[in-house]
Amino acid sequence: MPGLLSLVSSSLLVVQALLAAHGTHAQSGSLDAANPIVPFVDYPGMAAASAQAVGKPLAHGQRVPKCKSIKKRIEWRKLTYGQKKDYMQSLKCLQKKPDFGISPQYPNLYDAFVWVHTTNWTDYHLNAWFMPWHRWFVWIHSEAMEKVCGYHGPVPYWNYTADYKNLLESPIFSSDPNIGFGSHGRTAVNVSGLVGYKVDNGAFANMKLNIPVNHYLTRNFSAWKTLDPTRQYGIALGESFSPAAVTRALSADKFSDLEAIIEGFDNPLHFGIHNSPHFFSMGDWTGPGWMNNTQWFPQIAVAPNDPIFWIHHAYVDQVFWSWQQKPGKQWLFNGNFPWFDPTDNSAKATDILPFYGLGPNPPVNLTLKTENWPMCYTY
Ligand SMILES: *[C@@H]1O[C@H](CO)[C@@H](O)[C@H](O)[C@H]1NC(C)=O
Ligand SMILES: *[C@@H]1O[C@H](CO)[C@@H](O)[C@H](O)[C@H]1NC(C)=O
Ligand SMILES: *[C@@H]1O[C@H](CO)[C@@H](O)[C@H](O)[C@H]1NC(C)=O
Ligand SMILES: *[C@@H]1O[C@H](CO)[C@@H](O)[C@H](O)[C@H]1NC(C)=O
Ligand SMILES: *[C@@H]1O[C@H](CO)[C@@H](O)[C@H](O)[C@H]1NC(C)=O
Ligand SMILES: *[C@@H]1O[C@H](CO)[C@@H](O)[C@H](O)[C@H]1NC(C)=O
Fold first, then answer.
1. Would you kindly state where each structural domain of the chain is located, as residue ranges?
2. Ligand 4 nearest-atom number relative to CA 193
3. What's the CATH architecture for 2-378?
4. How confident is the model at residue 227 (pLDDT cuts 50, 70, 90)?
5. From atom 7 of ligand 4, which residue's Cα is the shortest distance away?
6. The pLDDT of residue 338
7. Binding-site residues, ligand 4, Cβ < 6 A
8. Which ligand has an atom closest to residue 161 CA?
9. Rounded to the nearest 5°, which phi and psi values hold at 199?
10. Which end of the chain is more exposed for a tag (fewer CB within 10 A), N or C?
11. SS3 letters for 44-94?
């Protein structure tokens, strides 16, 4: 498989380029309860919950709210047609809503999530903050979908492990105009070096996006079709998120071991449970080569442009959650904070995760149990 190996080494080259291009980031951010700009967030409640999560005494009058109910997330395929349709409409609805000043250069709440995810993105990728940060990010996005756009169905995850032998045939890529995420389309596009195929089918056909520049939702499944002509994803890409890969992740001892497996650091021929669908889809979902040779490289973190981002990350979170259900794992957290130094072991459960105005910045410990307020969900 020389083609695949060269793609693997290309993606390693990208990582090396990123390492070279970035200096250190100071650990930034603190609880921003004094600046409540997002109306669907309970800032005083979060200030209390954040204090409690790291063992600080509550101020007089501070109170941690209780969950009204614990919502169960379910696999995309188990949603009814009507729930899927509502979900798609609510996702698109975010493009019509104001962003509460989060992303001043971009006009809407959909973009605000992309903007936050591109802001200092190396602070919460490829390191210990990755899973807690993305758990909170997916949760707050589900809050926006519910409270701003009226989605009341279950929050879905996409169990792509069930599709590992042939990702291309996954029902999520359906071209149904109401419930399909669409496939990669037929029209090649190149907007200032952002290359791939315009998504021209499904619920997000011809979707216009704004970050880093106005363009259509773009994907390119060709790499995997070309490199794996017999569609034996079970040999190549699919092995990175097969049932065996999930079993291996769930047997991780420390949190940092789980993180390494999820992000594919532990095995040079595996892309990791998290990375594989990104690399499969390329385009907006950020595979190897996206933004390469453009003015925005190495700023490649526009992945939430693609609506699949949320159900994909909810599955990564489901694997994290499953691991946390093992005896003694619920509150484990350790690993590296500076993303460029895998040998660092300074990450702490008291670290404050930065969300750049998308609600308050929570401590890691507030993200570790999904059933606690404010997240109030389970799998
Ligand atoms: C990004 O990180 C830099 C370096 O730590 C910091 O100065 C800057 O304020 C951060 N950006 C935002 C929007 O917080
Ligand atoms: C995180 O929360 C758990 C459960 O309340 C607690 O046992 C642990 O001490 C907390 N960790 C920190 C660093 O405060
Ligand atoms: C995901 O799919 C695999 C393969 O069908 C199955 O074994 C596993 O239980 C599923 N996991 C979840 C969380 O849905
Ligand atoms: C895309 O267009 C840019 C010019 O904007 C050009 O430099 C680049 O080679 C093109 N890429 C492809 C794959 O055609
Ligand atoms: C799609 O990806 C393949 C493999 O990387 C590449 O050769 C091809 O030029 C890409 N097509 C478009 C339209 O960007
Ligand atoms: C990105 O471009 C560089 C040259 O600027 C090239 O060496 C590298 O292989 C490219 N990576 C990918 C994944 O296309």
1. 2-378
2. 1
3. Orthogonal Bundle (1.10)
4. low
5. 193
6. 81
7. 190, 192-193, 195
8. 3
9. -70, 115
10. N
11. HHHHHHHHHHCCCCCCCCCCCCCCCCCEECEEHHHCCHHHHHHHHHHHHHH
